[in-house]
Amino acid sequence: MVRTPCCKAELGLKKGAWTPEEDQKLLSYLNRHGEGGWRTLPEKAGLKRCGKSCRLRWANYLRPDIKRGEFTEDEERSIISLHALHGNKWSAIARGLPGRTDNEIKNYWNTHIKKRLIKKGIDPVTHKGITSGTDKSENLPEKQNVNLTTSDHDLDNDKAKKNNKNFGLSSASFLNKVANRFGKRINQSVLSEIIGSGGPLASTSHTTNTTTTSVSVDSESIKSTSSSFAPTSNLLCHGTVATTPVSSNFDVDGNVNLTCSSSTFSDSSVNNPLMYCDNFVGNNNVDDEDTIGFSTFLNDEDFMMLEESCVENTAFMKELTRFLHEDENDVVDVTPVYERQDLFDEIDNYFG
DNA sequence: AAACTAGTCAACCGCTAGTCA
DNA sequence: GTGACTAGCGGTTGACTAGTT
């Protein structure tokens, strides 16, 4: 297939910086007719620009909901977190920052954040320490190796460094999730085996905040959960979002619809569905025993993390199993504790 | 004051995926 | 099934500005 050129030079289309007059023409046209039809728009609007250029000008500059000015610290944290999850998927990152465009975020990343991370000794591509050549964590998928609550300030946190117990930042992230989900139900001594004694969960109080989310998972994924504990990637629940507790039903297509409450543990992670992948119950003709598994609780990254740092700890795994059973049978209220920022800060500090 | 360098960011380019006739 | 078209994405460029020599 032959791609038609977007901007035909022979038509004398203008390039380069937009003038206020051009902006005005574009704005008034879009106000009258709305977005779309970019190819024919320039002619209709009386602009000597290609449609692509008009669309970009609108998307990156003229749109009324665009936020201008300096990025806030929160926004910067979000960018770092989202970049760790999505890589250079600027549009995906932009969706997590209302009012910011992908182009703006891309520029900000390249001109500010990237340099700052390098200065801090963090590889902006992998989010790993640049000098950690022999670190075991280097074998982990790059996405995991980031503390999703890390801010520039946090990067300077000496205390965190001192408390690092040879786990990657990803472990902190994972344990945060565990803490968030299971709160003080988790056995302190078990946690101590992972992060050392005097763990931060000792004095956890609980708060509750529940929202509802529905997701669909194909029936093959449901079936695949039947061997609950083998941490193999083909058991993963791709595409599920963070939610708990869970109820489920199947639709006519064999998909399971999950209704769950969302739980989060830090401001930057709130509303970020990729950060959590809680369990669901797929009673699709499989034994109850088999319907509960980490495959339904964890996403790819978490699974890898379990393999790396936790799966060998039988007590810890038993704890998680118990919680999942409790949730399955509604034995206890699941009480997300994301309002307790201090709790997660403490956990983070254990891992740097 | 002029020349040079580095940083910033709007805009462009090339490509892909989705839609439709 | 095929090709034309459209929208959108990520990488790159280049104009502009600020700082330095």
Automatic annotation (TrEMBL):
Pfam families for the chain: Myb_DNA-binding
Coiled coil: none
One GO location term (cellular component): nucleus
Cellular localisation: Nucleus
Residue intervals of the Myb-like domain: 10-62, 63-113
Region (Disordered): 128-157
Alphabetically ordered keywords of this record: DNA-binding, Nucleus, Repeat
Domain of life: Eukaryota
InterPro entries: Homeodomain-like_sf, Myb_dom, Myb_TF_plants, SANT/Myb
GO molecular function, one term: DNA binding
Location of the HTH myb-type domain: 13-62, 63-117
Cited CDD domains: SANT (cd00167)
Name this protein carries in UniProt: Myb domain
Species, as recorded: Arabidopsis thaliana x Arabidopsis arenosa
